[in-house]
Automatic annotation (TrEMBL):
<dbReference type="InterPro" id="IPR016709">
    <property type="entry name" value="HadA-like"/>
</dbReference>
<feature type="domain" description="FAS1-like dehydratase">
    <location>
        <begin position="6"/>
        <end position="135"/>
    </location>
</feature>
<dbReference type="InterPro" id="IPR039569">
    <property type="entry name" value="FAS1-like_DH_region"/>
</dbReference>
<dbReference type="Pfam" id="PF13452">
    <property type="entry name" value="FAS1_DH_region"/>
</dbReference>
<protein>
    <submittedName>
        <fullName>MaoC family dehydratase N-terminal domain-containing protein</fullName>
    </submittedName>
</protein>
Length: 152
């Protein structure tokens, strides 16, 4: 297949994500999350947070400024989103400035009804300015073979 396996174990250049309260509110509204900690700053502060609390899936919106190098040159029509997970050391809050890196952990080959596919297992780690881990976001990208696209 076409994924360059030499990228396994390598990461993107670091990128910074500044967490804004407006972005938290918009994201929460978009996913239908009604947790008041994402909308009421006074309540969030009274519960010990430094600002509005982001929904648990919010790190899915963190994107590097450039496409991951291991995806370069791949046919975008053959790429699908797979599973995703989040592991928290602490919640993401408004005012956080997070340093993020996305790493290609491994590539697994699978066979399915429509042919072979590669599962690109990636993980983004976001650390705060002190270097402490805040959240890890694992993502699986499915890259389907060209052979049987459109087959049923």
């Amino acid at each position: 297949m076409e994924v360059d396996l030499s990228w396994i174990g390598k990461a993107t250049e670091p990128f910074v994500v500044e967490i804004e309260k407006g972005a938290i509110r918009v994201f929460a509204e978009a996913i239908g999350d009604t947790d008041p900690l994402s909308f009421d700053e006074s309540l969030a502060r009274s519960r010990g947070y430094m600002g509005l609390v982001a929904p648990l899936t919010f790190p899915a919106s963190f994107r590097p400024p450039r496409r991951q190098p291991w995806l370069a040159g791949l046919d975008e029509g053959r790429i699908l989103a797979g599973e995703q997970y989040f592991r928290y050391a602490r919640r993401v809050v408004a005012g956080d400035v997070l340093d993020c890196r996305l790493c290609l952990l491994r590539v697994e080959e699978k066979s399915g009804r429509s042919g072979t596919m590669q599962l690109l297992v990636q993980e983004m780690q976001a650390t705060d300015r002190s270097g402490a881990l805040v959240v890890s976001n694992g993502r699986v990208v499915v890259y389907r073979s060209a052979g049987k696209l459109g087959a049923r």
